[in-house]
Amino acid sequence: MESGLSTDRTDIIKFSGQSGEYFKLWFVNMFLSIITLGIYSAWAKVRNTQYMYGHTNVDNNSFRFLATPVQILKGRIIAVIVFILYIALSKINPLIGIVMALAFLVASPWLIIQGIKFTMRMTAYRNVRFSFEGTYGGVIVHFILLPILGAITLYLAMPWVIQQIQQYIHNNITYGGKHFEQKSSAGQYYIAVLFSIGIALLGAALITAFGGVTIASSAAGPSPGLILVGLAVFVLFGIVNAVYQTIVFNHLMKTLEIENVVSFDANMKTIPFAILVLTNILLIVATFGLAIPIVKIRTT
Fold first, then answer.
1. 3-class DSSP state of 15
2. pTM for this predicted structure
3. Closest-CA residue to 1 (of 300, 270, 267)
């Protein structure tokens, strides 16, 4: 990915994290979180995020994560207390449980805003913090009403809904008083979906044709062909996912800027990304989840 930091200069966003380093950090954090019954998870969150931010570099400057473990721990303790109260009071009087559930529903847009604001406020680059200016009404529209509309239209409007949500988030982020401007087009989301569906249907037709022959030939016993069919489905999943992700990601970056100060660009390739996705899944399955930190580094 590239970001134009001025009208006459282009800088590449670089990530220098190492799989071995991050695995050690992640493993220790996971171990300490388990033996402390989750209490240390707040410290783990900060350490993991600081590592990722600290190894993300633009124009010889890295990002910083400024949150403290105590800030995160307080929020989690409050959430646990509220949940315990909800369970206890619901058993005493179901009506109280219903009232609390409705109160949570009303408060959920505010909670979403506060979560995004906290993340942005705790993120800094060159000692300047990011911020988020989303509103309660905006979150209701984009995170509740639009997804409902997408479902009502049998998901035909969902690409537009996703584009609207992502555009809303980006357009409400500021850096140093300058607003991000996302000028994405819903048409590109539909193109991504149509390409993905087309490849999925073509792949499914080929797999079905090959699978039918394989099943017929393996009626007398197991056949390696069945394994190939399963492998083909797995590969098809990776390709379809990669097609959608690369089209949308490249479009998002090409239409994102910071008020005529910084523009972004990306040229992520479909096949390399598909290979990355598939090998990441294999790594996670083969290591029973232990490769999650390695996958995170590879994906970043």
1. strand
2. 0.87
3. 267
